[in-house]
Amino acid sequence: MSAIVERATPPAPTGLRATFTGRYNAVPSAVPGGETHINLSGSARIPSLGNARIAGTLASNPSLPPSSTNTNGVLTLVARRAGGNVVTVVSGPTADLTSTKPTTTQLNYTVVAAPPRLASMIGTQGVATLSLKPRLRNLPVGSTVTGQFTLRVTQS
Question: What is the pLDDT of residues 40-63, one digit of tens each?
Fold first, then answer.
C-alpha cells in the first residue's frame, strides 16, 4: 500500500514586505554636477521566501539646484524559494548618497519582473525607506563612502 503525500506550498506573496540590511559603497561623481552612485548588497528573511538577498545600484544628482534627476535605480531580490529573481525599479527625491552623516530617503518601487511563482507581484508598488549609516565621517571630499544600510520595504 502506498501513500501519496502532498506538501503544502505556502501561497505566493502578493507584495513585498521585508527589512533588508547590508553594506553599501557610494561613489561620488568624477565631474562637478554629475550623478553619484550607490551600490547596495544585503539580505533579509522573508516569511514566504526564506532567506533573500538584495543587490543593485541607485543614482542621484544633488549637486545642482534644482536637481535635474531624482534618485533612481534597479534592485534585484534573489531567493532560492522564489524560483528566480524579483526585479524592482525604484525612484524618489534627490538624495546625497555620499553623505558622511546618517540619512534616510523614502523611495517608491514597482515590481517589473518576477518568476512564474511570483507573477502576481508584477506591477505591485510600494514604499522603500532607505537608511544609510556611513562608517567614517571625516573623509576627504570626493571619497567613496562605505557603510551599512537598512531598507524597509512595504506594499502600498
Answer: 999 999 988 889 999 999 999 876
> Alpha carbon 88 to chain centroid distance?
8
State pLDDT tens for residues 61-73: 876 666 556 899 9
> CA torsion, points 72, 78, 84, 86, in degrees to nearest 10?
-30
- Specify whether the CB–CB gap between 97 and 71 falls below 8 A: yes
Quick check: bond before 66 cis, omega within 30? yes
Q: Answer yes or no: are the C-beta atoms of 82 and 118 closer than 8 Å.
A: yes
10 has a pLDDT exceeding 50:
no
Q: Which residues, listed in sequence order, are joined to residue 136 by a DSSP beta bridge?
A: none
**Domain residue ranges in the chain:** 22-155
What is the Cα–Cα distance from 128 to 108, expressed in whole angstroms? 6
